[in-house]
Each structure stands twice: as C-alpha cells, then as structure tokens.
C-alpha cells in the first residue's frame, strides 16, 4: 500500500510536524540531530525529557486482535522473522505523505551504489532493485506516535527468466509505539521520531539503506542491544500471557563467567513457569495488603520481575548447584517470540506485538542524545 492512499489519516505524521522549506543539505546536516556523532545540533537546547532508565512498572499484557486495525498482509510481513534492531535519531522533514517519492529516491541511491561497486553483497548478481515504502496503518497507540513504516526491497537475478517475478531480498521497518509523550512533544516541529528500526536481509543493503536515511533525513543509527533487564521484562511479560495463549516453553540461555565461559540452556515447563509467576505476584500483593495503596493487578512492577527471575535461579541452583546470579542472560524464548542480547528479536504472536514493541521503543528512546 502506497502512502498516497492514506493522506486523510490523522495520525500518519504527528500534528506537531508541519512542512517547512528544505534548507541546503550541508547546512541542515551540520545543524541536525546528529549530535550523537559529535556534530552541532539544533536540538541541543531541547529539554532532556527522555527517561534515563526503563520504567519500573508497566501494564500487564492482554491478548489483542490488532488485525482489526492493521492490514493482515502487512502484519504477516512483520511476524515470525528475526529482526536486527537499531535505534535511529529523529528524522528531519520526513513525511508519511512522501513515501512513493522515497521509494524512487532509495531505488536510485541503491542503483548508484551498485554502479560504484560499494556495497552490493546480495547473493548472486542482481539486475535491478525495486524499493517500496508503505505505512503500516493502525500500528500506533497514541496520537503522539508516528505510524510505522515498512520498507521492502525486491530484486531479480541476472540469471532469472524474464517472466519470473522479483523476489524480496531485504525488509525493514521504523516504529514508535507508546513513545514517551513528553520527549516526543519536546522535539522541534520538523522532526519526526521513529526510534525503533528493524532490518532483515543482506548486511550490505542494510548499510546502504541506513546511509540513504542519514543523508536524506539528517539522522544517525546505532546498535540497539537488549539489556539484561529488558530480557527479564520480556521473560516475565510473556510468561504472564500463558493462560490466554500458551507459551509452550520458557527457554533461557545464560553465560556463566568461568574459564572457558559456560553456556547454560535452561528450559522450564510452561505451566510450572506460569504457576511460579502467579505465586510471585500473589506474594507481592499479600505483602502490600494493609498499606495505604492497594496494588493494581493490571500493573506489573520491576520488583515482581526480579523476584520471578530470582526464583528461577534458585530452582536451577537446587537442582544443579550452579548459581546463575553471576552469569548474564543472553536469550529468552517462548512461543510468543524470542529476543537476544545482541538485539535480535522475533515476534511470533501478533496478539502481544504491541506489548513487545512498547518495551523496545522505550529501549530505543533511552539511546536518544539529549
């Protein structure tokens, strides 16, 4: 779906963004948001409103059928693919109404790069590349969120028959789900924030796409690793979903710092994991009874997450006499999705996609220079 078909949508580009005259590229490049590379920034006086740590509490996930508002075909392109995550700083004068033009511009940029032989590392010789930008309409949660943008690159090999269709060689997306409203509203009117970037495909094409974004929208990219705390949050939130959608398994990979490093795979029966999580939540609620505030059961807080992880570690220690507390969590996996500390994520159930992307958006916003 090209963006021109959705120009009447009220949430494509947030309302605080208006079209302004484009400055010369060299000047805008110097004064852009690329402060993370040491350049002067027009945003150096923007109030630092991004939280500098993850939220200590968040809403418990609930099953949601987002196909009611998101195109199922586009949703399928985002599902069950392992994405490499990056963060991207706010885009200068990015317009959701110009996606067709961006498709042509990026296609031409890739062709120029290919001609110079700079970064075309796609398998086999390719005759041409076709780029498609589209908006994933409905993939937002608040009026401050900019709509998710999907990018697809198709190509045909020189050895393919003329009647063979082009095949997908690369996909990527930019998203902002439940972004920090104070931070988003603090940005100048001609900057759009889509901080979460996912890519899947040839690394050479990923580099070319990032380079085009940097040159066109005066932004910069950086690796988005998933911290130990974020992995523990995902572990707890996904386990919480078990009664609505079976997680089928709860798998963790840990690295214990011995010589040589010890890799530990720890798999827990899904029902046992859920019962442990439920008991942790009940104990926490019982402790709070009699206090001035009654705990909202729809809220999960970091103390519950830490107690759950500690209970899992204690269970492992009782059986194997190995203390995982000294180790680092590298991977969590359930039937709902998987996440790796290296920044690779796969979402396998769309009913909890918003929960996962909300946490990842928060992680990406923590990387924003302020």
Layout of helices and strands:
Layout: H1 25-30, E1 57-59, H2 72-78, E2 83-88, E3 91-92, H3 99-116, E4 126-136, E5 148-157, E6 167-175, H4 181-186, E7 191-192, E8 196-201, H5 203-217, E9 221-223, H6 228-240, E10 250-256, E11 262-268, H7 270-288, E12 299-301, H8 302-320, E13 328-334, E14 337-340, E15 344-347, H9 353-365
Antiparallel strand pairs: 1-12, 2-8, 2-9, 2-15, 3-7, 4-5, 5-6, 6-8, 10-11, 10-13, 13-14, 14-15
Helix pairs in contact: 3-5, 6-9, 7-8
Which descriptors would you attach to this protein?
about 375 residues; 11-stranded antiparallel β-sheet; two-stranded antiparallel ribbon; 9 helices; about 30% helix; about 25% strand; disordered N terminus
Could you explain how this protein is built, in words?
This protein has about 375 residues and is α+β, with helices and mostly antiparallel strands. About 30% of the residues lie in helices and about 25% in strands. A hairpin with a 3-residue loop joins β14 and β15. α6 runs antiparallel to α9. The longest helix is centred in the last third of the chain and has 19 residues.
Radius of gyration: 22 Å
SSE string: HEHEEHEEEHEEHEHEEHEHEEEH
Q: Helix content range of the residues, please?
A: 25-40%
Global structural class = alpha+beta
Oligomer: single chain
Residue share in β-strands: 15-25%
Shape: globular
**What is the β-strand count?**
15
Any low-confidence stretches, pLDDT <50, length ≥5? 1-12, 15-42, 44-51
- Main sheet summary: 11 strands, antiparallel
Average predicted local confidence, pLDDT: 84
- Counted by DSSP, the helix tally is 9
What is the CA-CA span between the terminal residues?
35 Å
